[in-house]
Each structure stands twice: as structure tokens, then as C-alpha cells.
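Morning. Coffee machine broken again, so started the prediction first thing and wrote up yesterday's gels while waiting. Chain of 174 residues, entered below exactly as on the submission form.
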Amino acid sequence: MRNTKTKILILKGSGILILPGVGSMKKKAEAVQAQVVDVANLDEAFRYAVDLTRRMEGASMAAAGWNGSDRAALKNLVEAAGLRFIEPPLREHADDIHTAFTPTDFGIAETGSLVLDSTSEDVRVATMLSEVHVAVLPVLEPGVALRAQVRVSTGGSEIGRSSVLRFTTGERPV
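Came back before lunch.
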């Protein structure tokens, strides 16, 4: 198994923040070897991930958990940079994923952990088998009702028995 390096992009303006806050989340995440970067919007997050992949001499990216215009915009940027955009199903390309780019459902500031709805096999493959995992953690003002936000992040359905939540904290040991 690869020792995936986690990069957390804190996206200002929308999403979830579990108290005590962004500062604590950054500190705890960095303590477990995750690298935390503030970005202003999703386009900046896309550019960061593509630039990171190129700097690390990676050749490919997979975008598990993204759909519609966001996925299309990232795919266009990846291909314009001369990188390969890996299409699902990702299991067939598990050894080829350099950078996985995923949204997160929320973060736990106390531990620096990210929580991803990993019901999709593509999310599980991307986050566990890539060289680098770039996760986007949206941020809201404190006090947002978690249950309502989880419902939004899962496309309107509540997380139930058939859902798989994945907690990610820093680099996995070799």
C-alpha cells in the first residue's frame, strides 16, 4: 500500500467547520503530517492541485466525488496542463493515480481529521491508492447544523446504513 500524502485545501465561504475552528484544524492536521493551504475558491483549488501534480512530476489526476460543471472544469484544466485525467471506474487505474482530488463532508478540528462519504468505490480507491490526496474542506461560520449539512453533501439523502464514512488523519504509516 502506498503512503499517501494528504493536502487539505481550506475553502473559505461555504461548507462546514466543526468547532473550535479553522486555526485548530490546521494545527492538528499539520501535526499529523497533512499540509494545509487556504484557497479563495474552487477554481484556485483546482489550479493548486494541477500545479502540485506537475511540481511532483506526476502524470495523472482522478477527481472522485465531483460531478457536473466542477468535474468538467477540473478535467479541462488537467488536460490543458498535459496531464491525464483518469475516468471512473478508478479500480482499473489504481496503480496510475498520482493525485486524487476529493471534496470532504466535514473536518474535525480537535483531531485534524477529514470525513468523506466513501460509499463510492471510486472515492475509496482514489484516497487510498494515490500518491497524493488533495482534499477540499469547505468552511462555514460556526453553528451550522451538522445534520442538515450532511444531508446537503449527500445529495439530499441522509447518511444511512448503506453509507460508508471515511475518517482520514494525516499520512498513513508504511
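The first strand starts at residue 5 and ends at 11. Going to sketch it on the whiteboard this afternoon.
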